[in-house]
């Protein structure tokens, strides 16, 4: 299977090039776009996914409801709907844009487009990428911040939503 190709962008989101997934995650710090969706239920709880143990970044950590890369030639909105369908099996939802920001870790640099929605289910999650999903109360999340349970990106973003 050929390696995924991601767009390289400037901080305003304008495409300035392309690179493979491995190049983007190699410590090169080339800026590439990703989408995140925070799924809240009608009780105000937040759905989180536990990343599969074989993920190349942050395996086994709890993370944003949906998170994924924008493919080269794909719009941010198309990537959002594709990732939500692939990861949680949701076809019909109404995303609300929250913000975009740059997140940098030791191995990558992302332009993150963040959205939220309210959805109670059902879910059909991708068992290859996700070990489990569950709704967390905001108090539960706040209690577990800083304990290496969540991805650093999620913790950073949670403080902003």
Short description:
The chain has helices at about 20-25, 75-90, 140-145, 150-160, and strands spanning about 5-10, 15-20, 30-40, 45-50, 60-65, 65-70, 95-105, 110-120, 130-135. The chain is an alpha+beta fold and about 160 residues long.
How would you portray this structure in words?
This protein has a single domain, classed as Nucleoside Triphosphate Pyrophosphohydrolase (Alpha-Beta Complex), CATH 3.90.79.10. Helices cover 19% and strands 37% of the residues. The chain is built from four helices and nine strands, in the order E-E-H-E-E-E-E-H-E-E-E-H-H. The protein has helices at 21-24, 76-88, 138-144, 152-158; strands at residues 5-9, 15-20, 31-40, 46-51, 62-63, 66-69, 96-104, 109-118, 130-136. The longest helix has 13 residues, at 76-88. The radius of gyration is 15 Å and the shape is globular.
Attribute tags:
4 helices; globular; alpha+beta; 9 strands; 37% strand
């Amino acid at each position: 299977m050929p390696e995924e190709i991601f767009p390289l962008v400037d901080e305003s989101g304008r495409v300035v090039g392309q690179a493979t997934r491995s190049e983007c995650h190699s410590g090169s710090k080339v800026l590439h776009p990703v989408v995140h969706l925070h799924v809240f239920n009608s009780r105000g709880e937040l759905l989180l996914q536990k990343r599969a143990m074989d993920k190349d970044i942050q395996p086994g950590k709890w993370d944003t409801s949906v998170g994924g890369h924008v493919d080269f030639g794909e719009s941010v909105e198309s990537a959002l709907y594709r990732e939500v369908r692939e990861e949680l099996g949701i076809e019909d939802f109404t995303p609300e844009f929250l913000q975009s920001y740059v997140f940098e870790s030791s191995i990558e640099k992302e332009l993150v487009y963040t959205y939220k929605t309210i959805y109670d289910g059902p879910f059909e999650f991708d068992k290859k990428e996700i070990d489990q999903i569950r709704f967390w109360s905001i108090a539960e999340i706040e209690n577990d911040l800083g304990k290496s349970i969540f991805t650093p990106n999620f913790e950073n973003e949670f403080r902003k939503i």
